[in-house]
Amino acid sequence: MGFFRKNKSDLESNSYLSKSSIQIRSMVITAMLLALYIIFAAIGNLYFKMTFLASFLNLDISLIFLIPLVFICRWQWWMFAAIAGGLANFIWAGVGGYIGAIYNVVLNVITLSFVFLLKFLLFDKQNKKAINEDANNLVNNNQSERLKYWKIVAICIISFAYSILVNCVLNGIIFTPLYMNLYMPKSFVSVSFIEVEKIYNNTNNSDARAMLLYIPNYWTGIFALYSAFNGIKFSIVFLVLIPILIMLDKTNIVNRYFGKNTKLN
User: Residue 23: what pLDDT?
Assistant: First the structure.
């Protein structure tokens, strides 16, 4: 049942699916979810400002529409969606939004890749054994349903913690120095995070301190601001994803329409 476990009947029911039909269906679902991602990313960036943390932060939860692709399509499809979705930042931010575009591409790729890794470790290895299981093991398979759904929850929780940590580190090393150099070039003449940290820690510039909650220490400010921001953002994303992934598995949509059991995906 579902895309986390496969059996012989699933293989037989999907034997008619051709490689071209699976590719077309994968292209269609990728296009649909990518379109939703872009729409919600634009709405989040244009209308949902998190000014209580910082004026430049926006509540963008559009990753909700990309992560399911990891469980539906081959990796090439979700990787394309991750990159194309990130580059869509230019639509609402213009040429000056290149930092946001780079950030979104990197965020999308590392988040989806990590979810893919967890899926491989927790499910795909077991799926290879399940394909060769005899039908008599159906009772045992049904008994493992609860464990399977707890693994879905585990993927979301681990990805939540990972996303917060990685975002804090990336913002501290790459993106905050780029923003400070872009908007305050006289104060921050370098994009090196080492130089930016030294300047920030020794400055009394209120505009610079405002970017990190007026906290005088650079890395303390980075983790305080971005852990709070990403905690809010990713808690919404993964809380919504848990029932979505469980629904995908219970309805067996992935096996029926995207031929996961044919080894083409």
Answer: 85
